[in-house]
Amino acid sequence: MTSSDAPHPLLRRLLPGELxxxxxxxxxxxxxxxxxxxxxxxxxLVVYDxxxxxxxxxxxxxLAFADLATAAVLCLALFWRRRLPxxxxxxxxxxxxxxxxxxxxxxxxxLTVGALCRPRTVLxxxxxxxxxxxxxxxxxxxxxxxxxxxxxxxxxxxxMVTGWALLIGARRQLVQSLRERAERAEAEQEQHVAQARQRxxxxxxxxxxxxxxxxxxxxxxxxxxxxxxxxxxxxxxxxAAGVIRDSAHQALQDLRQVIGVLRAADAGEEPDRPQxxxxxxxALVEESRAAGMRVRLSQRLPEPxxxxxxxxxxxxxxxxxxxxxxxxxxxxxxxQVAVEGGPEDxxxxxxxxxAPLGGxxxxxxxxxxxxGLAERVSLAGGRIEHGHTGGGDFRLWxxxxxxx
Length: 404
Prior knowledge:
Layout: H1 9-14, H2 27-54, H3 61-77, H4 85-95, H5 103-116, H6 119-139, H7 146-228, H8 234-258, H9 281-290, E1 294-300, H10 309-329, E2 334-342, E3 346-353, H11 368-379, E4 383-388, E5 394-400
């Protein structure tokens, strides 16, 4: 867009904020402009025919030529009505003092000003058109009803068109306001989700930091023992090498989760050290039962201590989030927790929260817990599903692979 396409600085005060930077017209805008030109020509011809039919004397040739030329120029100028709405509206109002064929263009421009400009601008243009009717009725008197009746009738029609223009402007502003609110709410929601994901990534990174530090310290310890005791028995050397191999393997598994996760180093804040596993799951369930929840736990997998640590932590967090949501949104409802799987099938966790009895109100939540949980399960290479079932229960289901 060139600088010549922008509205005049004076018009920037009159136009609403969303129209201060003009863009290119779409095909729909061009079609609407062509329709406005056709309507303006049709209305102008009808008004001209009425004026000539009711006029007691023939219209002077000079006035007829001026009427035709002015109407032709103003009707063609309607293609630029969005770029110069106030200027064209003033021009059509001035032409309304002597040109009946320009009346159609005047109505179109009044409606255009109503759609694009502020109400005070619409009223100003309507007032200018009302003043223009005074010399117009003197040039084109009504031989049957007289000057006063024609003036009242013309002003009534003008008032109706002005009200229509104000209604169009009010609707446009309402739609624009609703659109801006929706866009702002969507942007805030996206920002909120991004912040929730970043917080969960930070928390996961802190946990992984502790795990990796533990693994690497074991590697350093056993490697140092081999370095300072080269004459150790073969059995001890083999055992130390096996520990080093297992620790390195576990460290690589943990590192796969932490890659891409940013760790926020908060000044003066000690990193969290929660290291729950599936072995801690019964304690979590008992804690919920002590709080008054009705929880039934079903585990069909190898011994919890045999489950890899980071996979157990993820499953633990899934159950923890499911119980937390049940306490929030379905107080007093029964909860079924099922954890099953194995090295070949992976680990599946399902938390089924029954519909609350009697529609008991729950604690409102923000939904960020499930967002963070989805991020955690995704980093573990798994899948997550959650939502209401046909019976009104809430089901949280996750699957993650069993690390080799």
